[in-house]
């Protein structure tokens, strides 16, 4: 792309195209990506950047992987899409077979959604419709924890952190759910009995109106990149069982090995009643997500007044997305993904060692293929990204967080570059006045 073409493209983009959580017109120009290969993005001027974000945590195999390219082009030669109402097709069935085999044993039913946000909407609808079908429509609220993030649609926003989250502007028009304090920070921390008691107290006090519990297992993502101990997830499973609640686990960010286990819930050795998957599902190639549930949930919904689950996206089970999702799962399982993630964890841990002592840094934490530097004050995003790009790395910080969730196929040297960029950013931070 010539400089003139790039300039024209950026000018139109800034004036007419809305980007995520951005003003209109744009205050800061977007970076023009013209191609991607391996784990690197190529900008219009030829600059190459290591993608430390996996395209928002999805491109775990990197870009232009021949197996995934072949899956898409092979399916394109048969059909790009067909409605799923009254029809089915081999890519959807193959993908469902893989997911039923890979996920915790009680999860046997698969609902294909368009995106992670829609998958959570479907999960919420499942929980509420289940209890309505049981003749208990008053059980229409959910128990969750502060610090969570589950998507941008209205059902999802209602179970995101209502105070410090991204959706507080809509708090007065959202459904009212029950919020516990955020889980105490620290994957390896000793469980706080007072916190466990508070979870139990809240659940008991609201059990008559609760349909279920919804949380992100082990890692709270866009709500703060917080890691918590598996004991809290086990406690929520026990609380759900005690009161007959449905446990909904949002594995959209944590699934497919990101935390060092295949599923976040594997850290606690628990199984949910409903589980949401997305992001890495298709290896970052196409938008697709899944809501899975148990036989109990499915039969409970189907036996009710509607007799069906009241949801059905136009692009449900898109054949192209389903085909590349199966190929992505096969690719993940063909490699030693656990060793890849463990190596990233070790390299990020060593590469960020000591950064917590810098004056502008509040905390440094690493789990699986996730590395986080939490600043003491909100960061200047353009300034932070400039430092990262000077180091040949693409990062997208938010709030007080500089973090990375790189592709699993990064080399040791590439992870080293990411850690160096994060360290230099941490050095640039100032202590609060």
Automatic annotation (TrEMBL):
The modification N6-(pyridoxal phosphate)lysine is found at residue 279. The keyword Membrane does not apply. It is an enzyme of class 2 (transferase). Its main location: cytoplasm. Its EC number is 2.6.1.62. The record marks 21 as: Participates in the substrate recognition with KAPA and in a stacking interaction with the adenine ring of SAM. Coiled coil: none annotated. It catalyses: (8S)-8-amino-7-oxononanoate + S-adenosyl-L-methionine = S-adenosyl-4-methylsulfanyl-2-oxobutanoate + (7R,8S)-7,8-diammoniononanoate. Pfam families: Aminotran_3. It comes from the Bacteria. Substrate binds at residues 56, 149, 279, 312, 396. CDD domains: OAT_like. Gene3D superfamilies: Aspartate Aminotransferase, domain 1, Type I PLP-dependent aspartate aminotransferase-like (Major domain). Pathway: Cofactor biosynthesis; biotin biosynthesis; 7,8-diaminononanoate from 8-amino-7-oxononanoate (SAM route): step 1/1. Homodimer. This is Adenosylmethionine-8-amino-7-oxononanoate aminotransferase. It comes from Actinomadura fibrosa. The gene is bioA.
């Amino acid at each position: 792309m010539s400089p003139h073409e790039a300039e024209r493209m950026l000018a139109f983009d800034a004036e007419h195209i809305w980007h995520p959580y951005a003003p209109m017109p744009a205050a800061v120009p977007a970076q023009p990506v013209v191609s991607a290969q391996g784990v690197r993005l190529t900008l219009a001027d030829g600059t190459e950047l290591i993608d430390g974000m996996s395209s928002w945590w999805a491109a775990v195999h990197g870009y232009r992987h021949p197996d995934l390219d072949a899956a898409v082009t092979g399916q394109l030669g048969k059909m790009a899409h067909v409605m799923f109402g009254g029809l089915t097709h081999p890519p959807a069935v193959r993908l469902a077979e893989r997911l039923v085999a890979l996920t915790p044993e009680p999860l046997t039913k698969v609902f294909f959604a368009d995106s992670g946000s829609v998958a959570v909407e479907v999960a919420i609808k499942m929980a509420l419709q289940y209890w309505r079908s049981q003749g208990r429509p008053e059980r229409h609220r959910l128990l969750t924890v502060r610090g969570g993030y589950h998507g941008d649609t209205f059902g999802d926003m209602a179970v995101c952190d209502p105070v410090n989250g991204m959706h507080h502007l809509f708090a007065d028009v959202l459904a009212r759910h029950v919020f516990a304090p955020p889980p105490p920070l620290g994957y390896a921390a000793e469980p706080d009995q007072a916190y466990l008691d508070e979870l139990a107290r809240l659940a008991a006090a609201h059990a008559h109106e609760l349909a279920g519990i919804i949380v992100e297992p082990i890692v709270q993502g866009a709500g703060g990149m917080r890691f918590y101990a598996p004991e809290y997830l086990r406690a929520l499973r026990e609380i759900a069982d005690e009161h007959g609640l449905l446990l909904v686990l949002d594995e959209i960010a944590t699934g497919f090995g990101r935390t060092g286990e295949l599923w976040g819930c594997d850290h606690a050795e628990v199984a949910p009643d409903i589980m949401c998957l997305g992001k890495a599902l298709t290896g970052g190639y196409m938008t697709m997500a899944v809501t899975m549930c148990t036989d109990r949930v499915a039969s409970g919904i189907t036996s009710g007044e509607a007799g069906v689950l009241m949801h059905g996206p136009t692009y449900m089970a898109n054949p192209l997305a389903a085909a590349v999702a199966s190929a992505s799962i096969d690719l993940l399982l063909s490699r030693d993904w656990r060793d890849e993630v463990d190596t990233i964890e070790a390299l990020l841990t060593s590469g960020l060692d000591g950064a917590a002592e810098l004056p502008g840094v509040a905390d440094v934490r690493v789990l699986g293929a996730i590395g986080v530097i939490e600043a003491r004050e909100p960061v200047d995003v353009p300034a932070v990204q400039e430092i990262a790009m000077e180091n040949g790395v693409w990062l997208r910080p938010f709030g007080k967080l500089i973090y990375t969730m790189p592709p699993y196929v990064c080399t040791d040297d590439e992870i080293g570059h990411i850690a160096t960029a994060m360290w230099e950013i941490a050095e640039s931070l100032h202590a609060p006045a």
